[in-house]
Amino acid sequence: MRKVNLTLPMLLKWHTRFNAEYFGGLLSTPIFKIRHNSTRKLGHFHCDYIIGFSGKRRAVNQTITMYDYYDRTEKDFQTTFIHEMIHQWQAETYGIVDHKNTFRSMAANINRYGWDISRCSNISGVNVAEGIAPRKKRNATTECRLLIWEDGDTGKKRFAFTTTSCAERNANAIVGSKRNLAQWRNLQMYKVNKDVKTNCFSTNRKDLRYYDWDKYGKQVIHLIDGKENLILKPWYQNAIANAK
Ligand SMILES: [Zn+2]
Fold it and tell me: How far is the CA of 52 from the centre of ligand 1 (A)?
């Protein structure tokens, strides 16, 4: 159960109330929006400006957007909401929105009534709301690192992949720590596309770690447990050839 389910009528009610209590009823009724998917924002005020004959900027299309990705108390949501109302007041009074003097003095005024409105909302520490999936990471890397070495005991070539977003750091750490060990002869690291990994490994995760790979020449890799052979695709060889 969420603490609060934001609705548009709720935002209108809040706006009417806070407008009367803290802004002398001077603010116009903005457009309200509720969004679910931002992990970074709690609220946002937007408007356009028209320049009048007097040269004064007049705010139009005022919009307050509330984000409910995080499960917060009513008071927390209202604190964000009033923050955005201060921006609306700035836009309609001064034709400019910022967190400088006019924002600070208005926030200080309102905070005397038991609020804690600040320039920045603190996102860390708030809970992720139930029922809303975290957004997928953008710019997920398409690269991973391929390590190839010779087993010092058997002389066989072996390889492993490091994945994760820290691939490079992990790989460097491995190379650094293993380079001088007899079991890790001629250790080399290549940057390859993740597809290489997907296409080389079987779906059995037990087998995902190490392979002999030139037991049958360069075209075949052989699982360590000896149960399964995989044909190396030609582009895999290209990937290695082109790797830095
Ligand atoms: Zn702000």
Answer: 26
